[in-house]
Amino acid sequence: MTDMGLEERPTVLEGTESYRARRPSIAGSEVPQQPFPILLSGAVQRGFGRGGKDLGCPTANLPDESITPMSSVTEPGVYYGYAQVSREKDGQVVLSEEEGKVLPMVMSLGWNPFYKNERMSAEIHIMHPFSNDFYGHNMKVIILGYIRPELDYVSREALIEDIETDKRVALKSLERPAYARYQSDPFFQGDVAQPRL
Ligand code: ADP
Ligand code: MG
Question: Per the database record, which ranges form the Riboflavin kinase domain (predicted)?
Fold first, then answer.
């Protein structure tokens, strides 16, 4: 397995600096458009340890097979929506009520270095301070919109700054009623592990 650093990821956008300077504060139209919403579910796995926590932005990984519903989306980049982590693991309730709620998230969709960049992987940052890791917990995700392409970073500071912007954009975008209503979607109710069709 080759560990691909941020510096070596493929660039998809030219003029990164000018793009970063004029990023809009809200993303997507008033109502989610095709192919959204996309529903994912699976047990949280260990990732590549590419420094999510070091950047102040831990990202939870779903198993490969659970990202199949994303196959209509092949553009690497940052997406937003809602996520819910199961409070239980191995029959024990380990997360607080607050941590088990439906919470806003930002998702990075990128090429998976483990599969020589022929498959994609999705990493999800939930906008909530969890008191512990939740590896092995079931996680449900509804993806509602696209924020931006994957950028080529000149510095760690620039990357951290963009992640902060992504979180603001996601929260603002999710405030719109046609998006906010997914927070109470039946997909998130109960203990059904699989997305309804
Ligand atoms: P890995 O490479 O294993 O994905 P990260 O540094 O990205 O490591 O940390 C991800 C893990 O951190 C998640 O799997 C989860 O257990 C935990 N975690 C804690 N808080 C969060 C959060 N707010 N969003 C996502 N994951 C979180
Ligand atoms: Mg991660």
Answer: 38-175
